[in-house]
Amino acid sequence: MFPKNTWYVACTPDEIADGPLGRQICGEKIAFFRGPEGKVAAVEDFCPHRGAALSLGKVVDGKLVCGYHGLAMGCNGKVVSMPGQRVGGFPGVRSFPVEERYGFIWVWPGDPALADASKIHHLEWAVNPEWAYGGGLYHINCEYRLMIDNLMDLTHETYVHGSSIGQKEIDEAPVATRIEGEEVITERFMENIMAPPFWRLALRGNDLPDDVPVDRWQICRFTAPSHVLIEVGVALAGKGGYHADPRFKVSSIVVDFITPETETSHWYFWGMARNFKPHDAALTASIREGQGKIFGEDMEVLERQQKNLESYPERKLLMLNIDAGGVQSRRILAKMVAKEQAPNAA
Amino acid sequence: MFPKNTWYVACTPDEIADGPLGRQICGEKIAFFRGPEGKVAAVEDFCPHRGAALSLGKVVDGKLVCGYHGLAMGCNGKVVSMPGQRVGGFPGVRSFPVEERYGFIWVWPGDPALADASKIHHLEWAVNPEWAYGGGLYHINCEYRLMIDNLMDLTHETYVHGSSIGQKEIDEAPVATRIEGEEVITERFMENIMAPPFWRLALRGNDLPDDVPVDRWQICRFTAPSHVLIEVGVALAGKGGYHADPRFKVSSIVVDFITPETETSHWYFWGMARNFKPHDAALTASIREGQGKIFGEDMEVLERQQKNLESYPERKLLMLNIDAGGVQSRRILAKMVAKEQAPNAA
Amino acid sequence: MFPKNTWYVACTPDEIADGPLGRQICGEKIAFFRGPEGKVAAVEDFCPHRGAALSLGKVVDGKLVCGYHGLAMGCNGKVVSMPGQRVGGFPGVRSFPVEERYGFIWVWPGDPALADASKIHHLEWAVNPEWAYGGGLYHINCEYRLMIDNLMDLTHETYVHGSSIGQKEIDEAPVATRIEGEEVITERFMENIMAPPFWRLALRGNDLPDDVPVDRWQICRFTAPSHVLIEVGVALAGKGGYHADPRFKVSSIVVDFITPETETSHWYFWGMARNFKPHDAALTASIREGQGKIFGEDMEVLERQQKNLESYPERKLLMLNIDAGGVQSRRILAKMVAKEQAPNAA
If pLDDT is split at 50, 70 and 90, which confidence band does B294 have? Predict the structure, then answer.
C-alpha cells in the first residue's frame, strides 16, 4: 500500500560511486548507476538476454554492462550493444525517472510520463552552506507506514529512547496536529525543563550551559509520500523558545526519508541537519553516531510490531490524539493510492 | 494438535527476574511478568494501542508498561493507564491463568473459566528438601508428540546416547506398558549388567563402586498433557533393584515438561531430580551439564524426523511394542483434544 | 523439470567413507552407504519404524542401522532386523539403482526396472593412467538448466572470470553449435592470441613459454541429462591448435556433472582432467584451487538469475547464437521428460 507516482529517496551517491547498485523500491527491482557524464540512471535489474541481475555488472563508458555475457544497457533501458550481436530487435527493460539532488538519488517508481522533477520538495538545509548534514541508512522489516507513525508520535521517545532524547515531560506536554495543504504537522512545546542527555551534549557543543532549564520543541512535518522532517531544539528557558535568538538555542532538523521496499519492508534514510558549527566535521560525526544508536533502538520495536499486526490482522488499533499525526498522514497516502488506482488515473 | 485446557510449563522464574518474557505457547503469543507483590501474570503480547509487543516493555509497580508509548497493562489484561489519556474505553487483551509452583511458571492457554490450579500435578521432589533439581530448556523444531514418543521409548538411548546412558541390554530387556487412569507407564528392568558411563559417574558420586554388576531400571510415566517423569537408577546387583536399600543404589527422576509452541515446534524443559547428596551443588551442576549434552543429541534426530514426516505425510508409521508408551500417550491426547472441540465442550 | 530415468552423479566415494550420506536428488531424499563387501547402496532416507533419517545412523556389517532405535536396513530397502522385533511384516522403503564408476557414485532416481549400468557414459580420462583428475562440489540455489546454459555458452568467461580464463577474444570468435545424436556440441577456436592468466600458469606448469601467442580452443559437449565436458586448451600459435603435437600444447577437459536437487537447486560436481604431468599432485591441487575460485564466481550470478526468473515468470528470454548450446540441450531434456511422462512411458 504505497503510491508509486511520486519521488522516493533511492540511495546516496556513495552507494553508486564504485559501480551499480541493485535495490528494490516499491516492489520494483532496480539497478542504479552513473550513465554518460556521470548522470545517474535507473533501469530494471534484469538483463533482457537471460535474466541476470544487471546490478552485478560494471559501468563502462556510461553503459551498464551485464556481468554475465556483456550485454550493454543504456540509461533509457534500451540495449546499446552486445559482443557479436546485432541488438536492434532486442527487447528493452523499463527505465525509471531519476534525479540527483540535495545529496540524494531520487527515483519515481510509477508512470514515467507523470514524473516531474520540480515536485521534489525544496530542502533548504541541503543547499545552504550554513547547514551541515550527517546521516545513514537502515533496512527495516516493517511496512513504511509504521515508521511514519513512529516519527509522527514522539511520545515514544520517553520509552524507546529513555537514555538519550526521551524524558517524561514529552508525555505530559499537549500535542497539536494540523493539516496544511498536503502536509501534516504535529507539534509539542515543553517549557522550563531540564534537557535530556542528547540535548545537553548539543548545548555543550554549541558552548551553552547544559545544567540550566530550557524550553524544548518538536515540530514534525510529514510531506507525502514518506518524508518526515522534524524541527527539534532547546533554548535557554525564557529566551523565546523556538523563536529565541540563535545565541541562546541549539536546533536542528531530524531528517527521515522512508522508502518502501516491499509491502512489509522499507529503507530508512535518517539523518540530522543543523545550522550551528556546520563546518565541525567531528561534531557531525559524533551526532551521526549518537543518532544511529537512537534510531537503531526503534528497529526491534517496529519489526515486532509488524509481526504482531500480521498475526492479528483483524484487530483494530487505537487512534488517540497522540496518533493524529500518523492517522492524518495515512489518510493522505490512502488518497494518493486511490487516485492512482482510479480507472481514469493518468 | 494439542489440548489447550490444561496446564503447561511456560518458563522458569529466572526468565522473568529482570523483566517481562515473550513466549509463544500453543499458538498464543504471551507476555509473562511479575505483577503486584511479585505474583506472576500472563497477558497477550500485543499492546491494544498500536500492536507493539508488550514483552519489549518494562514492569513498573506491577504493571507491564509498553516500551513504545507507555500504555500500562494490568495483570488482568485491562489497560490501567497511559500518559495523557483516559483509558476507560480502551480495549483490553486476553489474560491467561498462570501459577508459580514447584520452581516453574505454569500457564493455562485455553478457556480461563476452566482453569483449576489444583489440577497441577503434585511434584514431591520439588518440595521435599531431601531432593535436588537441576535442568534446562531447549527450543526444538518438531511437534511435541515426537518428544513424548522419544521419552516413552528409551531403546533410543542405545543408538542416540551410546557414550553415556545407552547400552545394548536396553534393547534386550522386555518392556511393559500399562495405563493407570490418565497416566501411561512403560517400564523396563535389566538385571546383573555393567552400568554405562553416566551411571558409573553417579555411582562414584554416591560413594559406590562402579566396576561391579548392577540392576538397572527405567520407569517412564506420561501424564497429560505432556509431562514425562522417568524414574531411573541402578542398584548393586542382587540388593533388590528398584526396591533396594538407599545405601546400595543411585536413583533419580528424569523430568521432562514438553510445551507446544506451534504445531511443529515446542519448548523442552528437561532436568533431573535426585534424592542423594541433595546439597552438593557441584554434583547438581555436573549432572546438569552431562544431561544437557545427552538431550542435545536428540535434537537433530527429532528435527530431521519432523521434516521427514512433513515430506511424507501419507506414510503410516509402525506401532511396535516398544512404541506402546507413545501410542497410548497419543490416544489420551487425542481424547482430550476431541473433548475440547466437541460442540458442548465447556 | 528433470528426467528421472537416467544416471546422475550422486556423490564421491570420500563422502561415504566414514558413514552414510543423506542427499536429496531429483526430489528424492536418499541415504547412500556402503553395503556388504563395500558395494555402494542407496535407499530412501526414511526409517519405516518412525520416520527418522536413516542417514543419521551407522553402517554395521553392510546394513544401515537407524540411529534412533536400531532398525537395520538392507541395501534393497528391506528391513533386515530390529532389536527385539520380528521384522518379517515390516514395510520397506525404495532402494535406488546405484553404481560406483570413474571415481563417482551414480544413482538412477527413476524407475529401477529401466536402470542399465551400461548407459553410464564411458569416461576415458577417468580410467587411463595418463590422465589426472581433481575436482570439488558446490551446492547452488538455481535450477540445474541454468548451469547447463552457463557451461554451454562460455562467452560468460570474459565477464565473470575476467581475471583468470576470460578474455575479449572469446566474444569475438565465432561459435558453432551442432547436434550429434544425443550430444550437443558447441565450439570456438581463437587463433594467435595471448593466453589469459590461468592458461599462462598451465603453460609454465608444462614447461612451455607463456609470453608468446597461442591458439586456443573450447569444445563444449553436453550429454543428457546434465553432463557438460569441455575440451579446452592452448597450443603455441601455428603448431596446429587443437591438433598440435602434445609437446606444443596444454589441454584438459573441464568436467561438469550437474545433478538436480529440487526444481530450484542443484549439486554441481566440477573438476578438471588433464593428460600432462598426471602424477604431479601439487599441480593437481593448484589447478583444483584455481578452478574452485573460478567456479565460485558463477554462483552469485546464477542464484540471482534464478531469483529474477522467479520474479518475472512471464518474460521470454532471448535465444541468441551464443545460447544455441543451452537451447539445444534444453530441447533434449524436454524430450526426455515428455517421454517419461507419456501414458505408455515404461
Answer: confident
C163 and A CB contact within 8 Å: no
**pLDDT tens-digit profile of B303-317?**
999 999 999 999 988
Asked whether C95 and C109 are in contact (CB, 8 A), the reply is no
Give the residue from chain B lying closest to C71, CA to CA: B159
- At residue C316, what is the residue type? K
Q: How many residues does chain B have?
A: 346
DSSP output for B277-332: STT-HHHHHHHHHHHHHHHHHHHHHHHHHHHHHHH-TTPPPP--GGGHHHHHHHHH
Asked if B88 reaches chain A (Cβ–Cβ under 8 Å), the answer is: no
- Assess contact for C209 and C202: CB atoms under 8 A: no
Torsion of CA C232, C237, C242, C248, to 10 degrees: -90
- Check if the beta carbon of residue A98 is closer than 8 Å to that of residue A107: yes
Which grid coordinates belong to C45?
A: 532416507
Q: Tell me which residue in A29, A53, A68 faces C156 most closely, judged by beta carbons.
A: A68
Residues near C246 by beta carbon (within 8 Å), at least 6 away in sequence: C275, C276
For the stretch A195-229, pLDDT in tens is 998 889 888 888 899 999 999 999 999 998 989 99
Report yes or no: B85 at the C interface, CB cutoff 8 Å: no
| Chain centre to alpha carbon of residue B82 | 37
A56/C304 CB distance under 8 A: yes
**CA pseudo-torsion sign A30, A33, A37, A39:** positive
- Whether cis (ω within 30° of 0) applies to the bond prior to A225 is yes
Q: Around Cβ B199, how many Cβ atoms within 10 Å?
A: 20
Low-confidence ranges of chain A (pLDDT < 70): 343-346
Beta bridge partners of residue B34, listed in sequence order: B40
- CA nearest to A248, candidates A261, A259, A260, A234: A234
One-letter amino acid identity for A279? H
Query: Are residues A156 and B68 in contact, defined by beta-carbon separation less than 8 angstroms?
Result: yes
Three-class SS state of A201: helix
**ipTM reported for the complex, 2 dp:** 0.88
Q: For a pLDDT cut of 90, what percent of chain C falls above it?
A: 74
**Cell 545513514 maps to which residue?**
A136
Chain B nearest-CA residue for C82: B171
Q: Could you give phi then psi for residue A249, rounded to 5 degrees? A: -140, 165
| Distance between C217 CA and the closest CA of chain B, angstroms | 47
Rounded Cα–Cα distance for residues B287 and B282 (Å): 9
* CATH number belonging to domain C8-118: 2.102.10.10
Q: Give the single-character DSSP code of B100.
A: E
Assigned fold of B128-341? Naphthalene 1,2-dioxygenase Alpha Subunit; Chain A, domain 1 (3.90.380)
| Chains in contact with C via at least 3 Cβ–Cβ pairs below 8 Å | A, B
Of the two residues B165 and C49, the one the predictor is more confident about is C49
> Of all helices (H) and strands (E), which one includes residue B181?
none
Rounded CA-CA distance A62/C288 in Å is: 37
Is the peptide bond prior to C225 cis by the omega test (within 30 degrees of 0)? yes
Contact B152, B228 (CB under 8 A): yes
Q: Which chains touch B (3 or more CB pairs under 8 A)?
A: A, C
CB B246 within 8 A of CB B276: yes
CA–CA distance, C36 with C95 (Å, rounded to integer):
15
Q: pLDDT of C227-248, one tens digit each? A: 999 999 999 999 999 999 989 9
Q: How many angstroms separate the CA atoms of A276 and A204, rounded?
A: 12
Question: In chain A, where are the structural domains located?
Answer: 8-118, 128-341
Q: What is the pTM of this model?
A: 0.90
Give just the sign of the alpha carbon dihedral C60, C61, C64, C66: negative
Describe the strand order of the beta sheet including B8-11 as a list of residue ranges. Answer: B8-11, B104-107, B98-101
Report how far residue A179's alpha carbon sits from residue A169's, in angstroms, rounded to the nearest whole number. Answer: 25
Lookup: cell for B81: 493507564
